[in-house]
Write a structure and sequence with these properties.
The chain is of the alpha+beta class. Strands 2-1-3-4 form a four-stranded mixed beta sheet.
Length: 98
């Protein structure tokens, strides 16, 4: 049975935390307890990187197919190539995204 998109993303974030704790710390500092609404294929879920009540979800839309997410996770597709090939779609306020 294939993992859910949420499990795949959680695994990828755990791998980043193991490989590059500074990147994870930066993500948590930048995003904090703000909940993010994520859509991967037909699956939608909310992700929160840091504990806390958080604020309203940012106006950010992220879409990717489950297979493409697996390829990004496994290193078979870079995030840059995913964006350029339209496999990864991200829309939102630049200040929120950066």
């Amino acid at each position: 049975m294939m993992d859910t998109a949420e499990q795949i993303l959680q695994d990828a974030l755990a791998q980043v935390e193991r490989d590059c704790p500074a990147a994870t710390a930066h993500l948590k500092e930048a995003i904090g307890a703000t909940p993010l609404d994520i859509e991967i294929g037909a699956e939608r879920f909310r992700l929160q990187l840091s504990p806390g009540e958080g604020g309203p979800a940012p106006e950010v839309e992220v879409r990717i197919a489950p297979r493409d997410l697996i390829d990004v996770r496994d290193g078979n597709l870079s995030v840059y190539d995913a964006v350029i090939s339209d496999a990864l779609f991200v829309r939102g306020d630049a200040a929120t995204l950066v």
